[in-house]
Inverse folding.
């Protein structure tokens, strides 16, 4: 069982930055691919980025490529999402998720989820 707790959300002006953190319980954190998803009001949850376990390969949605950076610190059991050049359309609840194996952009492939953290970008 893996428990995930996100933090770092908040209100920021367009063009600003935020860093989200996802702290995971358990002793096998490096075995899990970590993903970030987001859900805006009235929209389906969408893939943002993922980072694989020990080798830390990364993948991004086209909408955030070049602005967001996903990373992880296996010693701290924590994954991060650095968000720069934020836009109003980035406003959403951001969730981290974990799965064993390679990355996936499908939320149904992830086994564990955090409670979410709100990110609001004002224009």
């Amino acid at each position: 069982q893996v428990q995930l707790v996100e933090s770092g959300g908040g209100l920021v002006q367009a063009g600003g930055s935020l860093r989200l953190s996802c702290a995971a319980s358990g002793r096998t954190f490096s075995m899990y691919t970590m993903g970030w998803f987001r859900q805006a009001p009235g929209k389906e949850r969408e893939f943002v980025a993922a980072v694989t376990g020990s080798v830390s390969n990364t993948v991004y949605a086209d909408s955030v490529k070049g602005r967001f950076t996903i990373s992880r610190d296996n010693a701290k059991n924590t994954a991060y999402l650095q968000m720069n050049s934020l836009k109003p359309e980035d406003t959403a609840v951001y969730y981290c998720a974990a799965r064993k194996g390679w990355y996936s952009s499908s939320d149904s492939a992830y086994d564990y989820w955090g409670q979410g953290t709100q990110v609001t970008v004002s224009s």
About this structure: The mean pLDDT is 96. The CA atoms of residues 23 and 78 lie 5 Å apart. The first strand starts at residue 4 and ends at 7.
